[in-house]
C-alpha cells in the first residue's frame, strides 16, 4: 500500500496544479469578489466536483485511453473550448452592464444549484484536467497500483482541490477586496473574459492539432 510520503508528494504536486492561475481559479476569485462568500463556496464546490470526475477517469486508467483516443479527445476539447468562449462572452457582456442593472441581476441570481452547476460544468468540460491528474499521480504512484493506494491518492488530491477552492472563495470575498473589485469591476470582467477566450482558443487549437 502507498506510504504517507508518497501521498504528501502527490498532494503537493496536485496543489501546485490546482492553485496556479487558470480559468477555474480566476472564475472562482471573480465570483467571490462580485457575489460574496456563500455563492463562491457553492461555485467552488462545483469546481471541485467537476475535478473529481476527471480524477475518477485518471485513476480508473481511462485517462491513458482517452489520451490515446485522438478523435474522442478532439471532440471533448472542441466542446470545452466552445464553453470557455461562451464564458468569455458572458464575462465581457457583464462588463458592459451599468451598476444599477448589475445590482438587480445580483438580487435575482439566488439559485445555489445554478452556481454549483456552473462550476461543475467548467471543470468537467476541460479534458486537460485529466492530464494534470495523471501528472500529479505519477509523482508518487510508482509501484502502487492496488485499489487502496489509488483510492487514497484520489482522496488526497480531492481534499487538496476542495481546500484550494475554499481558500480562493474565502480570500477573495474579504470585504476590502470586494470593495476594490467594485471600483474596477469592468476591467476585472474584461480581464476574465480575455482569460476565458485565450483558454478556449487554446483548447480549440489543441483539438485541431490533434494533440
UniProtKB/TrEMBL annotation:
CC annotations in GO: plasma membrane
Chief location: membrane
Alphabetical list of InterPro entries matching this protein: LeuE-type (IPR001123)
Membrane topology per record: Multi-pass membrane protein
Protein name from the UniProt record: Threonine/homoserine/homoserine lactone efflux protein
Gene Ontology terms for molecular function: amino acid transmembrane transporter activity
Lineage per the UniProt record: Bacteria, Pseudomonadati, Pseudomonadota, Gammaproteobacteria, Oceanospirillales
Protein location: Cell membrane
Assigned keywords, A-Z: Cell membrane, Membrane, Transmembrane, Transmembrane helix
Amino acid at each position: 500500500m502507498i506510504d504517507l510520503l508518497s501521498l504528501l508528494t502527490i498532494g503537493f504536486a496536485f496543489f501546485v496544479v490546482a492553485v496556479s492561475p487558470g480559468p477555474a481559479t480566476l472564475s472562482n476569485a471573480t465570483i467571490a469578489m462580485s457575489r460574496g462568500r456563500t455563492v463562491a463556496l457553492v461555485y467552488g464546490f462545483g469546481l471541485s466536483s467537476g475535478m473529481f470526475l476527471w480524477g475518477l477517469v485518471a485513476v480508473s486508467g481511462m485517462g491513458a485511453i482517452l489520451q490515446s483516443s485522438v478523435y474522442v479527445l478532439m471532440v471533448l476539447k472542441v466542446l470545452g473550448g466552445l464553453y470557455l468562449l461562451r464564458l468569455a462572452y458572458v464575462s465581457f457582456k457583464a462588463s458592459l452592464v451599468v451598476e444599477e442593472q448589475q445590482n438587480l441581476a445580483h438580487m435575482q441570481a439566488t439559485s445555489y444549484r445554478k452556481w454549483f452547476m456552473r462550476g461543475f460544468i467548467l471543470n468537467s468540460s476541460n479534458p486537460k484536467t485529466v492530464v494534470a491528474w495523471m501528472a500529479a499521480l505519477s509523482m508518487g504512484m510508482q509501484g502502487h497500483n492496488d485499489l487502496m493506494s489509488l483510492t487514497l491518492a484520489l482522496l488526497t488530491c480531492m481534499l487538496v482541490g476542495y481546500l484550494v477552492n475554499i481558500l480562493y472563495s474565502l480570500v477573495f470575498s474579504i470585504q476590502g477586496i470586494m470593495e476594490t473589485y467594485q471600483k474596477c469591476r469592468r476591467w476585472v470582467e474584461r480581464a476574465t473574459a480575455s482569460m476565458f477566450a485565450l483558454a478556449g482558443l487554446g483548447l480549440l487549437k489543441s483539438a485541431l492539432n490533434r494533440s
